[in-house]
Every structure is written in C-alpha cells, then in structure tokens.
Specification:
The protein is α/β, with parallel strands linked by helices and 156 residues long. The model has no long low-confidence stretch (mean pLDDT 93). The chain has helices at residues 38-47, 78-83, 85-88, 114-121, 134-137, and strands at residues 8-10, 51-53, 61-65, 68-72, 101-102, 106-107, 131-132, 147-148. The chain has a four-stranded mixed sheet.
C-alpha cells in the first residue's frame, strides 16, 4: 500500500516566520511582514507533511520544525548569487539541481544552509529590534538608541 509513503508538500510562500532570518539580519527588514502564514502552516500540519518545500525569500534553508522538514533551494537571480551567495547556498545547488527524495534511498540527509544552520546553533531573539548586523547597518543612517549586533557570532 501507499499508507507509508512520505507526503512532500510545496508552496511558493514561506509557511512559518521561523523560516526566515530575523529582521536585524535583513537588508529589507519589512520582508518579515510578508512571510509566515498561519493558514499555510495549519494546512501542512493537517497533511502531516514529512517535508515541505517552499520559496519566496531566496534563502537556502533546511530545518525540521515540529516533525516537518522544511527546505528552500531557490534558484534565485544571477545578481543574488553574486552579492549574497552564502545566504542562498544549500547542498550543491549552485552546481546542480538538488535531489530531496529518491524512491530507492528515501530522503537525502539534512544539508547545510547558512541561516538554518545558524538557528540550529543560536536561538532566535526577536526582541532585539534596536540592533542591526554590521553588514546591514552600513546601508542605513544610525539613529539614537540604534546598535550594531555581533556578526558573525563566536562559534559560527
């Protein structure tokens, strides 16, 4: 029977806010307002997806949350690969398409991706709203009370 086959679901949009870097790390901090969908997350849970493949933000991502593995392997635009390659990389995507599941061997092991690897090691700190990463801060005018957070953190 097919009752033991994995369910792999797909969406263009990001189903959970936790699948995006915190806004202090983003050149476009308002991106956080356009990601995460309760409706989509609820649908994925109802389906009991083993893996959910998503897109939209063009960050390489491979993380398991609440029993579902979430993967984003965006092809992106050439300029993105030139200016922020490290944040887009996942597996060998730059050289070849990524195979996520094979009928003969099952799912591929988790792949390293910059941001999901970061959050595996360091907890999210959404309460930090007054500090920016140095590479982001350089694009903005500093205001009173604004800080620059440590990046990269020790041990990453």
């Amino acid at each position: 029977g097919t009752e033991f086959l994995p369910i792999i679901s797909f969406s263009h949009f990001v189903p959970r806010l936790e699948l995006n870097p915190e806004k202090r790390f983003l050149f476009l901090p308002t991106l956080a307002k356009a990601v995460g969908s309760r409706f989509l997350e609820k649908r994925i849970r109802k389906l009991q997806s083993t893996m959910h493949v998503f897109g939209h933000t063009h960050f390489g991502w491979d993380a398991t949350l609440d029993g579902t593995r979430y993967v984003q392997a965006a092809l992106g635009y050439p300029q993105e690969w030139q200016t922020r390659r490290m944040s887009m990389e996942i597996g060998n995507l730059y050289e070849e398409p990524i195979i996520l599941w094979s009928s003969s061997s099952g799912f591929v092991p988790p792949m390293r991706a910059r941001w999901s690897s970061y959050y595996q090691k360091f907890p999210r700190k959404p309460s930090i709203t007054h500090a920016l990463a140095p590479y982001v801060a350089s694009a903005y005018t500093r205001v009173d009370g604004g800080e620059i957070c440590e990046w990269p953190p020790k041990g990453f």
